[in-house]
From TrEMBL:
Membrane topology recorded in Swiss-Prot or TrEMBL: Multi-pass membrane protein
Record PANTHER family: CYCLIC NUCLEOTIDE-GATED CATION CHANNEL SUBUNIT A
Record flagged with keyword Transport: yes
GO molecular function, one term: protein-containing complex binding
Protein localization: Membrane
Main localization (coarse): membrane
Cellular component, GO annotation: membrane
The keyword Iron appears for this protein: no
Cyclic nucleotide-binding domain mapped to chain residues: 18-138
Record key words, sorted: Ion channel, Ion transport, Ligand-gated ion channel, Membrane, Transmembrane, Transmembrane helix, Transport
Descriptive protein name: CRP-like cAMP-binding protein
Organism: Prosthecomicrobium pneumaticum
Signal sequence bounds: none
Length: 178
């Protein structure tokens, strides 16, 4: 969409998942590989159960997050807006998507793909621990939101499991040797 690299870098710096663990050089590397998209209303960004190789940060607009419950059918678990992120667990671990995310209004999102994150992690594999800890905190938040037993089972990963999953997903050759 013609976003200036410094604008994209500023967007990434506002995402706690990255701002808390990446240095300015790593943020610049990630920004150079990220893409900004305009998304029309009622567009599905990701579907529950799919594999995902990217995450999205909402720049402006709004997205609805829904999950399929074993007893309750589809239900909204969150409405997210500017600065919020979705899809980070799938991106980091290779796990299936735990929710469906749909734009509610005209929305702009920043998409970060696995290849972009690999470029950062390849030079700083120890970042996996910081990212794993951040994802574990996000999991706790999601568990509080979800009352459905199906969703809690999917979301019940712990920090050590998340770090192991990230390592397997980004560094499969190293994970086999451990």
């Amino acid at each position: 969409m013609g976003e200036d690299l410094s604008d994209v870098r500023a967007l990434i710096e506002r995402i706690p998942l990255f701002a808390e663990v990446l240095d300015p050089g790593q943020i610049a590397t990630l920004a150079a590989k990220a893409t900004v998209y305009a998304v029309p209303p009622r567009t599905v960004l990701m579907s529950e159960g799919d594999y995902g190789d990217s995450m999205f940060a909402v720049i402006d607009g709004a997205v609805e997050v829904t999950v399929e419950g074993a007893r309750s059918g589809s239900r909204e678990v969150a409405m997210l807006g500017p600065g919020d992120i979705v899809g980070e667990m799938s991106l980091m671990t290779g796990a299936r998507r735990t929710a469906t995310v749909t734009s509610v209004v005209q929305t702009r999102v920043l998409q970060i793909r696995k290849a972009a994150l690999e470029a950062v992690l390849a030079h700083s594999p120890d970042l996996v621990i910081g990212l794993g800890a951040m994802l574990a905190r996000r999991q706790i938040e999601l568990e509080r939101i979800s009352e459905d037993e199906h969703a809690q089972r999917i979301l019940g990963l712990r920090a050590s499991e998340i770090v192991a999953a990230i390592r397997r997903f980004f560094f499969p050759d190293q994970a086999e040797r451990e």
